């Protein structure tokens, strides 16, 4: 008789369990920002550190105002980060993707409290 055995090794980097807070991410480690557009919400997280915010949709669609505020919080913690990945469920409307990507790339901020200017957030946001 003969016995054949096959062994396979997979090298995986699994995401951490959801931390629930941006404050728990280490600013000294590189950020792998991911924004996932789902049919009922937008999820913002780090590929390694896990999900840190889930933004439910409004009756009009994705809540890009809250997403933009979240992008400002992430940028404040990781000022040198410029890249983000946008992921979407199948059959996500194209307009929703465009609005979400716009909210990820730039936002309005007060310059000295008197002038509103465009602030660059994650200009290298790309969809997958």
Account of the protein in words:
With 128 residues, the chain is an alpha/beta fold. The chain is 20% helix and 31% strand. The protein is built from 2 helices and 7 strands. The chain has helices at 64-77, 94-105, and strands spanning 33-37, 41-46, 50-56, 83-88, 106-111, 115-120, 124-127. The strands form 2 sheets. A 5-stranded mixed beta sheet has the order 3-2-1-4-7, covered by helices on one side. It has a two-stranded antiparallel sheet with strand order 5-6. A hairpin with a 3-residue loop joins strand 1 and strand 2 (41-46). Helix 1 packs parallel to helix 2. The longest helix has 14 residues, at 64-77. The protein is extended, with a radius of gyration of 18 Å.
What are the SSEs and their pairings?
Blueprint: E1 33-37, E2 41-46, E3 50-56, H1 64-77, E4 83-88, H2 94-105, E5 106-111, E6 115-120, E7 124-127
Parallel strand pairs: 1-4, 4-7
Antiparallel strand pairs: 1-2, 2-3, 5-6
Helix pairs in contact: 1-2
Cα(first) to Cα(last) distance is: 50 Å
Could you give the order of the helices and strands?
EEEHEHEEE
> Which strands sit side by side, in order, in the main sheet?
3-2-1-4-7
Average predicted local confidence, pLDDT: 83
Largest sheet: 5 strands, mixed
Count of helical regions: 2
Give the percentage of residues in beta strands. Answer: 25-35%
Class from helix and strand fractions = alpha/beta
In which range does the helix fraction lie? 10-25%
**Low-confidence runs (pLDDT<50, min 5 residues)?**
none
């Amino acid at each position: 008789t003969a016995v054949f055995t096959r062994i396979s090794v997979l090298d995986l980097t699994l995401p951490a369990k959801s931390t629930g807070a941006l404050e728990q991410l280490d600013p000294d480690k590189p950020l792998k920002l991911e924004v996932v557009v789902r049919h009922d919400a937008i999820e913002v997280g780090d590929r390694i550190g896990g999900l840190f915010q889930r933004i439910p949709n409004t009756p009009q669609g994705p809540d890009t105002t809250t997403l933009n505020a979240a992008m400002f919080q992430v940028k404040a913690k990781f000022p040198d980060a410029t890249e983000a990945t946008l992921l979407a469920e199948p059959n996500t409307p194209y307009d929703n993707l465009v609005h979400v990507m716009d909210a990820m790339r730039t936002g309005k901020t007060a310059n000295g409290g008197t002038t509103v200017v465009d602030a660059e957030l994650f200009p290298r946001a790309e969809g997958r």
